[in-house]
Task: inverse folding
């Protein structure tokens, strides 16, 4: 018989409490908007603000743009490394891990100082923002694409396609991509979750997004910011749940860290 | 690949082997877009921070920016605060995360407890920034649920007693929300990797549970344990959004100072901001080297 481990239960319960207490408190706080009773009025108010939809829409747009650009950059690169230059894999992997060495606030500082003055001015375009997000997505994208490609025979597939007269575009989009579609989903979902809540890049580069909007109303109002924080948590939660469902058993679903 | 193996089989055919060594490998061109991106948006920004750290206002080479950090009490304090929060949450989150991973993997808890904890850790380790800060303000801020409960139960006025959550310890409690779940996510597979045979071998030799952990399990897990704590340290050290939304510029972290310097030249010296950023990159690099070294040691026992 397995002995009932009281210490394990105590640790587990402390962990659960730590997880849920802030969520319960946030819900309770957001429901205090109407004095004297608990209502969901704060949620109604939050969703009535047109600014919310504008900023949320911008975040969606940045998210999709980041994912598309990141895939265009990472998939062919990792594919090429697997097929032609396996020796360079450690170097490429090292570069994708750079966001762990260069914190977001430092990278954005460097980008603004470098591209905010002549000869090249990019700070009036979204290029530094998307570039920063692509860098943030690198660890997850590389990991999932790398794991996906490792699971298939890149060499045989490519040579078969080449001998049948396929061009590079066809090989990447019709042969390689469908084979790693499930594997890269974890990278795509994590990137999306990170960009949707991201604050540092958007705020310091002065672009509208959900993170800066939330911070801004947090400084001015009570109750609605808490309601939107819960919405944001629910979004993260559902993205991770979908990712874990889809990626069950698929390689590369391991995750390291988000953007804090 | 096939070309190489052919030349290796025919050592007599020296000329083609020699010419191929000096031929440009056009395969590298396939990686050009990736490396170009990395140079433009990672290497050059970092290099510019490095160069500008050693550039004076008149454009000449100088160490003034670096020495200014050590002369300004505020900057030393900012580094001290950042380091303190990072060490507290790395050690605290590491220990608690390890205990939690142990509880759900080896502690004899039902299966649902394990899958629930792993899923929630996946969510919580990615839940950070502004919403996390607001959640904790609603929890332990002046009007927070926990604050009110403590005040009503113990009949005290915490604010009047000088208690504030906008301190290093308050921020550490917030950071712990994404720190210990990350530890759980990394330790759980490591604990799963401990083999039953090792424990049985220990028992056969007359060892107790304490012997097993002291001489077998902990030494095997130690590189993973320390490596993950180093990762947690870096995770907290680079954080900006959570701290900014939690306390504004109340808590003087290095990342907060750099953020303020971007929004307006608050230090009245552009070079100084660069030097502060360079210091952050250096500390993060040392962290990363430690993490990689620990990862190498941990890999010894993973097959």
Result:
């Amino acid at each position: 018989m397995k002995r009932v481990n009281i210490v394990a239960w105590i640790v587990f319960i402390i962990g659960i409490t730590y997880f849920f207490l802030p969520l319960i408190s946030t819900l309770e706080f957001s429901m205090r908007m109407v004095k004297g009773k608990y209502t969901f009025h704060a949620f109604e108010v939050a969703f009535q603000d047109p600014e919310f939809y504008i900023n949320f829409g911008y975040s969606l747009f940045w998210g999709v743009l980041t994912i598309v650009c990141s895939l265009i950059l990472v998939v062919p690169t990792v594919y090429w490394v697997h097929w032609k230059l396996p020796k360079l894999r450690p170097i490429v992997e090292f570069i994708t891990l750079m966001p762990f060495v260069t914190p977001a606030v430092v990278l954005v500082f460097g980008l603004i100082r470098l591209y905010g003055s002549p000869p090249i001015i990019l700070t009036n375009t979204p290029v530094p923002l998307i570039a920063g997000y692509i860098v943030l997505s690198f660890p997850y994208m590389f990991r999932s694409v790398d794991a996906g490609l490792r699971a298939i025979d890149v060499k045989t597939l490519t040579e078969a396609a080449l001998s049948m007269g396929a061009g590079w575009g066809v090989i990447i989009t019709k042969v390689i991509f469908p084979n790693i579609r499930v594997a890269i989903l974890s990278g795509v979902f994590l990137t999306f979750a990170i960009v949707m809540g991201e604050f540092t890049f958007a705020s310091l580069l002065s672009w509208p997004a959900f993170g800066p909007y939330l911070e801004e109303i947090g400084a001015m109002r009570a109750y609605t910011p808490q309601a939107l924080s819960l919405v944001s948590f629910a979004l993260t939660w559902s993205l991770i749940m979908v990712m874990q469902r889809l990626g069950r058993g698929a390689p590369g679903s391991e995750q390291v860290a988000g953007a804090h | 690949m096939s070309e190489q193996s052919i030349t290796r089989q025919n050592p007599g055919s020296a000329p083609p082997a020699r010419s191929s060594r000096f031929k440009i490998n056009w395969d590298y061109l396939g990686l050009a877009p990736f490396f170009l991106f990395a140079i433009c948006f990672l290497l050059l920004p970092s290099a510019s921070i490095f160069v500008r750290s050693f550039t004076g206002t008149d454009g000449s080479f100088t160490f003034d920016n670096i020495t200014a950090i050590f002369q300004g009490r505020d900057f030393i304090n900012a580094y001290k605060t950042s380091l303190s929060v990072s060490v507290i949450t790395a050690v605290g989150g590491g220990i608690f995360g390890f205990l939690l991973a142990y509880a759900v993997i080896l502690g004899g808890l039902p299966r649902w407890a394990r899958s629930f904890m792993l899923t929630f850790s996946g969510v919580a380790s990615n839940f950070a920034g502004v919403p996390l800060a607001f959640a904790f303000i609603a929890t332990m801020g002046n009007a927070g649920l926990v604050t009110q409960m403590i005040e009503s139960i113990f009949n005290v006025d915490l604010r009047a007693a000088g208690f504030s959550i906008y301190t290093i310890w308050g921020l550490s409690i917030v950071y712990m929300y994404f720190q210990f779940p990350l530890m759980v996510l990394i330790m759980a597979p490591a604990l799963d990797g401990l083999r039953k045979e090792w424990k049985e071998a220990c028992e056969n030799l007359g060892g107790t549970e304490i012997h097993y952990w002291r001489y077998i399990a902990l030494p095997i897990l130690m590189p993973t344990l320390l490596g993950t704590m180093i990762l947690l340290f870096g995770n907290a050290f680079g954080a900006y959004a959570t701290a900014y939304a939690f306390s504004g510029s109340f808590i003087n972290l290095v990342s907060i100072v750099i953020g303020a310097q971007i929004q307006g030249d608050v230090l009245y010296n552009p070079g100084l901001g660069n030097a502060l950023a360079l210091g952050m990159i250096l500390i993060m690099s040392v962290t990363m080297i430690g993490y990689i070294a620990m990862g190498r040691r941990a890999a010894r026992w993973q097959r």
About this structure: The CA atoms of residues 140 and 147 of chain B lie 5 Å apart. Chain B has one domain: 68-299. The radius of gyration of chain B is 26 Å.
